[in-house]
Amino acid sequence: MVADEDDFLWDSDSEPQFFDKDRHLRFLEMMYDLLPSDYQTQEINRLTLAYFTIIGFDILGSLDRIDKDAVIKWVLSLQAHPKNKDDLNNGQFYGFHGSRSSQFQSNVEGALVPNGSHLASTYCALAILKTVGYDLSLIDFTSILKSMKNLQQSDGSFMPTHYGAETDLRFVFCAVAICFLLGNWSGLDREKAKDYIIECQSYDGGFGLIPGSESHGGATYCAVASLRLMGYIEDDPLSKVMSPCIIDVPMLVDWCLQRQAKDGGFQGRPNKLTDTCYAFWVGGVLKILGAEKFIDEGGLRGFLLTCQSQYGGFCKSPGQFPDLYHSFYGFCAFSLLDEPGLNPVSVELGVTEIATVGLHLQL
């Protein structure tokens, strides 16, 4: 007998009205041990999935549940290395691959192309290594930073790979976070990156992924977090409205606050449904700006609890199945809400504050 899909959905009347940490830990342990088959299509992003899992454990204060040495060995095995110093001038990016399969891709002729490293994978790799206590000065950071400059475009934006892809704020953030984690800003032109970010602020106060595009919660986070990491905006700029700022903070705060809907959740754009992840993307922006006190915390907590799964983790919206992406940002959101027993999150960097020890914002 095959059970109906509805049999596996949590009856709303049985949902616990509290953050179920133990259940979430069991969810992460399952993901750490063996990813379900539904994640097969995400194999190329395995390093990103590992980021959600391992940083998730750290947010929940349970990093002791993973084998740190095994994690370090696996992550380091995914770094691309130039054969010699001259290769650093061949236009390729020598960062981290997203998975073993992306490490050895085939071109149209069937020949192996061994370097498919990616900016997002590199950010995730460094975040994981820093979280598990690895000394980042031991990696080949010179190759990463020198080759990363090849990805920055004339307008200040970044491609994620050396063989071409879209350029937008997501990859500006990745490049900025990489430099911040490594404590070395030689991998990008900060002024060009800043100018590109400013060009992406829309008439309504939010930021689009590219100049002239619709404001979006994720893009807005990438913009504001990048500017904060590079030192172009102060901590709590809303309280310093009389001080000059390179972005329109009051209008940005207004746009963010308008993203909280009647059900308490946040939406990524106007006229869109609320979604667990935007509790962090938009709520995190408000935190950086010093405007988190204007969030309806009770409403947001209530919405998030309706997205909490009986199996642990969080889903995108009530009634769906949990996934790693939304679970991670659900954990982040509850950390921002000061949930007892959770480690505080460094909003700008996407790791816990514990993991940022020794790192310093640019001033």
Automatic annotation (TrEMBL):
TM region(s), chain numbering: none
Keyword tags: Magnesium, Metal-binding, Prenyltransferase, Repeat, Transferase, Zinc
Gene Ontology CC annotations of this record: CAAX-protein geranylgeranyltransferase complex
Gene Ontology terms describing biological process: response to abscisic acid; response to auxin; response to water deprivation
SUPFAM superfamilies: Terpenoid cyclases/Protein prenyltransferases (SSF48239)
Molecular function terms, GO-annotated: CAAX-protein geranylgeranyltransferase activity; metal ion binding
Span of domain Prenyltransferase alpha-alpha toroid: 19-348
EC number: 2.5.1.59
Enzyme class name: transferase
Organism domain of life: Eukaryota
Cofactor annotation: Zn(2+); Mg(2+)
Pfam family, one: Prenyltrans
Keyword Methyltransferase: no
Family under the similarity heading: Belongs to the protein prenyltransferase subunit beta family.
Name of the molecule in the record: Geranylgeranyl transferase type-1 subunit beta
